[in-house]
Structure formats: structure tokens, C-alpha cells
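Researcher: We're teaching a course module on how sequence relates to structure. For the next exercise, students receive a sequence and then see the predicted structure as C-alpha cells, so they can try to spot secondary structure elements on their own. Here is the exercise chain.
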Amino acid sequence: MNFFDARHMSQIIESPTTPITTRASGISLWRPDIVLPKTIVPAPERPKVTIAEPGHRPEAVRAQVEATRSLLDSLADARQAFRSRTAEFNQAAAGGASERDRVTTIIETYRAKGALDEALRGTLRRASTMMDTRGLR
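Model: And here is the predicted structure for the students to work with:
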């Protein structure tokens, strides 16, 4: 079978007698104009950010030291209050009082211990907050 006979070749080579017309699709492609600036101005140089040493920010350091001092003072006050309350209870228990006085002393000792625990929790909470703000935790 000969695929290249003259009759088929003439159909392939012949050009169409009428011009080919295409239908408009209704879609137009966006062809943006490229705009280039005439001159390129470099961005202004930004100052480098450095973490200031304590000598460069004395007010912040003073505030941190004062907050720490206040925290430690409140802890010392709680310790002193605990000591004075337990000293009273120890004297009452050592006096050889009745069983009722001894139980009352034990109950008051537990209350004092609870007050100290609450003071320690508050102090720890404040210390944790201070450490978080300084970025130490």
C-alpha cells in the first residue's frame, strides 16, 4: 500500500481557497505595561539594633533592683511574722498548759504555716514574673 500517492499529496499541499476566519472568544488577555523607574534611589540605612548594657539604661536597671529589693523585703517580713507567731505558740506549749491549750497552739501553728506558705507562693509568683520580663525563663 502506497501512502504517498499523488492524489493525497495534492490535497495536503493545496492551500485553502477561502480565508480562514476565527471566532472571537470574548476573552481578552491582560498585557500590562512594564514601568521602570528612571533612577533607583537606595533605601536609607537603618541603625543597627543593639541590646543596651546596664550602663546605657540606668532607669530600667534601677527599677529592676528596686522591684527585687521589694520582693526580698516582703519575704523577710513574712519570715519575721512567722517567727514571732511561732515563738508565742512555743512559749504557750512549753508552759505545761492543758490539753486544750496544746491543741489550740498546734492549730494556730498550722495557720501561721499556711500564712507563710501563701506569702511564699506570692513571692514566687512575683519572682517568676520578674524573671519572665527579663527573659531569664
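Model: If you want an answer key for the exercise: The CA atoms of residues 14 and 67 lie 98 Å apart. Residues 86-137 form one domain.
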